[in-house]
Design goal:
Helices cover 49% and strands 7% of the residues. With 349 residues, the chain is α/β, with parallel strands linked by helices. It has a five-stranded parallel beta sheet with strand order 2-1-3-5-7, sandwiched between helices. Strands 4-6 form a two-stranded parallel ribbon.
Length: 349
């Protein structure tokens, strides 16, 4: 007769099952602890762009306009003041020297929770290098998702990718700096605030506003072509979602020649003729800006200049462009009105 191996004793099977379940539970708890440790050690990003924690506290599908770009967006546009003078809700989801490659992934992530009528993109990033100085600052605060992975593998320097995927690699040495606020942000990652992505600059640097510095930005042909490639992807995403894309150059005393901006507009319209492009770089008088009072440095407005510009922008978006505020819940309307009052007090100080 044939011999067959004896099956494992019945008593051993439950024990093996328990061992596997214990191992799985151990790995899960370890992963959760590592995730929590990374969230605690990761620095909070509450200003200077990339303020994902506050953005994700906004009610879903409540924002009329998303403002994208670099510091020329988050220093110049105060969404609460735009709202006060137009009724348009909005958020500045820009980042420091943010290249268009990262902006594209930001927009994809934004559209998971919001459905804006328009995207206003400050266009100076078309002159940036492929890799600027703040890749880590721009990508680390993004919520973990396929869009963050897209940013890591298509828009980040290869040597930064390990740390961008595993925060502990960058921030394990911060444990001596930790306080209660770090634990709180890990436990409650969505933190609403009144700034709506805007960063106020509260001074005028010495000598600023006396005369504009006009010189065309130097960008390699390769970098410029790469920027147009990512702009085309932003345009395609807006077209797919039925979003109006508005490109702007904000008021600045560090600017290119009118001819350079006209050439930029031609390149944009060669990709998509319907994209609106507005060069406001020299429109200080028309907007009501006084350079010696309203600039922080050569390129950015200070908080008072941003207030003046945001009043004008709200009127432009609703009056000139015809954007219409969406209906809001009573709770969100009250929250926006509280933001308006908060900024009135803040700017009056």
């Amino acid at each position: 007769m044939e011999s067959h191996p004896n099956p494992a004793p019945a008593a051993k099977r439950p024990r093996r099952r328990r061992e596997l379940l214990f191992a799985a539970a151990f790995l899960l708890v370890t992963a959760l602890l590592l995730h929590f440790a990374a969230a605690v050690l990761r620095p909070a990003q509450t200003s200077y762009g990339s303020t994902w924690s506050a953005f994700l506290a906004e009610p879903e599908d409540s924002l009329d306009v998303i403002y994208l770009g670099s510091s020329f967006a988050y220093c110049d546009i105060n969404p609460s003041i735009v709202y006060e003078h137009s009724g348009l809700t909005g958020y500045v989801m820009g980042g420091s020297e943010q290249p268009l490659s990262i902006t594209y992934w930001y927009l994809r992530e934004i559209l998971r929770t919001q459905s804006p009528e328009a995207v206003v993109l400050e266009a100076t990033s078309l002159y940036f290098k492929r890799y600027q100085n703040y890749t880590q600052t721009n990508i680390v605060p993004m919520p973990f998702s396929l869009n963050k992975l897209g940013a890591v593998f298509t828009a980040a320097e290869p040597e930064l990718r390990l740390g961008l995927l595993f925060d502990l690699y960058f921030y394990h040495g911060r444990w001596q700096e930790l306080g209660r606020a770090d634990v709180k942000k890990a436990l409650f990652p969505h933190q609403w605030d009144e700034k709506k992505g805007f960063t106020p600059m509260n001074e005028v640097l010495e000598g600023v506003g006396e005369a504009p510095y006009v010189a065309d930005r130097q960008v390699s042909g390769e970098d410029y072509a790469n920027n147009l490639f990512w702009l085309e992807k932003v345009i395609g995403l807006c077209r797919e979602k039925g979003i109006r894309l508005i490109l702007t150059v904000n008021p600045s005393y560090t600017r290119c020649t009118p001819e350079a901006y006209a050439s930029l507009a031609e390149d944009v319209h060669a990709i998509e003729p319907s994209v609106e492009f507005y060069d406001w770089s020299a429109m200080f008088e028309e907007i009501g800006l006084v350079p010696t009072l309203h600039l922080y440095d050569g390129g950015h407005l200070n908080q008072d200049g941003a207030a003046v510009f945001s009043v004008w922008l709200g009127g432009f978006l609703t009056g000139e462009l015809g954007l219409t505020p969406r209906a809001q819940t009573a709770e969100n309307t009250a929250a926006w009105q509280s933001c308006v009052a908060w900024w009135e007090d803040y700017l009056a100080q």
